[in-house]
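User: quick one, sequence for these tokens?
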């Protein structure tokens, strides 16, 4: 119990103090006009209040990630608390803040455009592909569960449920952001927050023993904490999907001073939600072996439903039902919207098509494969979501490092988590079944080699930018159309 409550307090303090430090390193300019005004088009560039931007950002990045991922991560035991707290404050919050604010500084640019500007065209092409693939996988993975639940609770068939949800996805992708997303997301946000707070309060007063902190690996199959936990719990710690979503909201931010609340704040909020569900997963079912058996028999949605029902009764069951249906849909729709924006940016100067036709074509180009993939096994999709997700997160952190080096700022705030994630994803790619499936020791050695190569390139870049004469024009002039 002490560990659980302390972890929530540390996350809040992290937002207050470390988030403020990150903001100072970035150096905001509240007097500059943001793209929400300078490029206002009543489609994607629309000024929104900070509270609404935070709410939409939270739903965009959260969905069921900090719930299902945290429950799965609970299999490793209380070490998951450490990863959520440290990862969220030092890595995830930094990642989300810089992805949102750099997009804002570059006129609402999508993530691949930032990659091209700071890391080069070659890496940009790679990032374009990985980003769109990631969002197609997310849309597919986050629609299958709701469709299955709808078909089990109503007379609607699974296929018809898929069609209904994807029809909404397409509409949300092509209609102005303030027409659907801006109007209904605050309602969905209330459901997410009430669900998390209710479970947390009920858990604290339930009399059940919430495990205290330990670094002991409690996974029933003895799977290694490093690096599997860093991929299992991504939403709630650090997730590359977030940097594909931040440009949606960067185009609505009214003032740079709101960035910490909207971007860093949404990440901290997601971390708190992940903590709550990780604690619930560890507390119920008699330990990690019981949790593993439940996940195997009734799946993550069933686990969430059973915990909610036991803690909150019929009210909890309704919340769980709404959450498992609504929350993944609010991630899938913006995944399609973001991928539509990326494809538009990539194709705009290469094909002569009317903007509205290009927008609709891009939406269907990502919507159709996501629809087809949604019919296959969810756990298979989720493994590849985690795989591609953390690759994107690592690239975004290196974009942040490049920006900080270029403008003579304190680069270690992004450099340390970038090095950490480089090591983690390198070992994961070599070790995981969806990667090369090499022996663990071989994977650690191979990942260490990759880490040392990247670290040496980082040191070289530090030396290169140590000369003050290499620092370009002030950040105040960084806005790019």
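Assistant:
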């Amino acid at each position: 119990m002490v560990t659980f409550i302390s972890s929530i307090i540390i996350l809040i303090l992290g937002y207050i103090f470390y988030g403020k430090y990150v903001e100072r390193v970035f150096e905001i300019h509240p007097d500059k006009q943001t793209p929400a005004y300078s490029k206002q088009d009543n489609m994607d560039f629309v000024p929104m209040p900070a509270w609404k931007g935070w709410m939409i950002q939270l739903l965009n990045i959260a969905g069921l990630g900090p719930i299902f991922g945290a429950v799965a991560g609970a299999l490793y035991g209380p070490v998951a608390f450490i990863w959520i707290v440290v990862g969220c404050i030092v890595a995830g919050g930094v990642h989300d803040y810089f992805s949102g604010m750099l997009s804002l500084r570059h006129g609402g640019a999508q993530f691949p455009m930032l990659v091209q500007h700071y890391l080069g065209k070659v890496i940009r092409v790679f990032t374009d592909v990985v980003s769109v693939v990631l969002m197609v996988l997310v849309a597919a993975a986050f629609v299958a569960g709701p469709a299955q639940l709808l078909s089990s609770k109503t007379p609607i068939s699974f296929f018809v449920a898929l069609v209904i949800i994807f029809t909404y996805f397409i509409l949300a992708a092509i209609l102005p952001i303030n027409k659907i997303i801006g109007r209904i997301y605050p309602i969905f946000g209330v459901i997410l927050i009430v669900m998390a707070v209710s479970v947390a309060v009920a858990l604290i007063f339930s009399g059940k023993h919430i495990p205290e902190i330990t670094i002991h690996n409690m996974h029933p199959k003895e799977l290694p904490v490093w690096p599997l936990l860093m991929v299992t719990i991504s939403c709630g710690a650090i997730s590359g999907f977030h940097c594909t979503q931040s440009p949606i909201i960067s185009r609505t931010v009214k003032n740079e001073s709101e960035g910490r609340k909207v971007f860093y704040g949404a990440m901290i909020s997601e971390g708190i939600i992940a903590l709550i569900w990780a604690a619930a997963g560890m507390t119920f079912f008699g330990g990690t072996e019981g949790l593993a058996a439940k996940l195997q028999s009734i799946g993550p949605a069933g686990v969430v439903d059973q915990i909610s029902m036991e803690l909150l009764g019929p009210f909890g069951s309704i919340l769980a039902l709404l959450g498992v249906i609504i929350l993944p849909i609010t991630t899938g729709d913006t995944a399609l919207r973001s991928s539509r924006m990326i494809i538009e940016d990539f194709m705009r100067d290469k094909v002569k098509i009317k903007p509205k036709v290009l927008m609709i074509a891009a939406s269907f180009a990502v919507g159709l494969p996501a629809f087809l993939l949604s019919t296959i096994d969810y756990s298979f999709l989720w493994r590849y979501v985690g795989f591609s997700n953390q690759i994107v997160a690592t690239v975004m952190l290196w974009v942040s490092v490049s920006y900080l080096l270029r403008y003579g700022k304190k680069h270690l705030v992004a450099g340390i988590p970038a090095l950490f994630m480089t090591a983690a994803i390198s070992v994961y790619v070599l070790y995981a079944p969806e990667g090369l499936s090499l022996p663990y020791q071989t994977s650690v050695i191979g990942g260490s080699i990759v880490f040392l190569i990247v670290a040496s390139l980082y040191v070289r870049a530090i030396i290169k930018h140590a000369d003050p004469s290499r620092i370009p024009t002030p950040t105040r002039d960084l806005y790019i159309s």
